[in-house]
């Protein structure tokens, strides 16, 4: 992964941690506040968090890991998905009602 890509991920994690609150995340995950703080601040031992504990922190922050090449899938905000769903439904309703079909000459 490129450095800008890694920095974007780091920024997303730190933003979510600031919004959720470090103590709240520590309490939810059962990881001490001190260890979460050391992980967040890039301490030499990283707070000692293993992969599972890191996954718990990400989950508590409402974040998920998505592969860079998700086999044809696209990740979009829920609001965008909802808007596309409404447009598709309205289009289908119009086509099925016959109002959207061109007249044959």
From TrEMBL:
One of its GO terms (molecular function) is DNA binding. The keyword DNA-binding applies. GO terms for biological process: regulation of DNA-templated transcription. This is DNA-binding phage protein. Gene3D superfamilies: lambda repressor-like DNA-binding domains (1.10.260.40). The keyword RNA-binding does not apply. InterPro entries: Lambda_DNA-bd_dom_sf, Transcrpt_activ_CII. Keywords: DNA-binding. Pfam families: Phage_CII.
């Amino acid at each position: 992964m490129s450095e800008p890509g890694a920095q974007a991920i780091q920024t997303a994690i730190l933003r979510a941690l600031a919004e959720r609150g470090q103590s709240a995340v520590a309490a939810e995950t059962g990881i001490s506040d001190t260890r979460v703080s050391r992980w967040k601040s890039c301490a030499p031992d990283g707070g000692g968090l293993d992969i599972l504990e890191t996954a718990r922190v990400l989950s508590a922050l409402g974040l998920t890991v998505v592969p860079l090449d998700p086999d044809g899938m696209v990740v979009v905000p829920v609001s965008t998905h909802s808007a596309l769903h409404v447009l598709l439904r309205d289009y289908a309703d119009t086509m099925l009602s016959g109002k959207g079909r061109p007249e044959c000459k």
